[in-house]
Amino acid sequence: MDTNTIDHIIDKHHCEAGSLIQILLDIQSENHWLPKEALERVSKKLDVPMSQIQHITTFYKSFSLVPKGRHEVHVCTGTACHVRGAQRVLDTVQDQIGIKPGETDLDLKFSLETVGCIGCCALGPVMVVNGEYHGNLAPSQVEEVFKKYE
Hints:
Number of helices: 7
Order of helices and strands: HHHHEHHEEEH
Helix content: 40-55%
Low-confidence stretches: none
Shape: elongated
């Protein structure tokens, strides 16, 4: 990620340290993760210690300090989804994209995570790809869903 892009994001938030979390979210949205160089640039421009930035980025699960795929896949394994077959969906997803939860494929195409609940229990089992919800998902439908993200 180049410094001009980082600077643009910081300037959009008027270089305010109070906007640190939103700045980090915007950088991650643009880049899919938070490289060390980007964090150092934010630290310098906002005059915020790196230790504070590292504390925030390691505390909140939504931040990633390692590269993520272009397509972020979340499979709900909460109670409602679990009893409706989430594990079978998860197994099929793993077979389709070749990675396990917590991993990113070598091409940086997909990252896979499981989540405890995404708040739409009536639609279980649910998979979310790039913020798009796929509910009442059967294992046989997983391949069709992934065709949209080729």
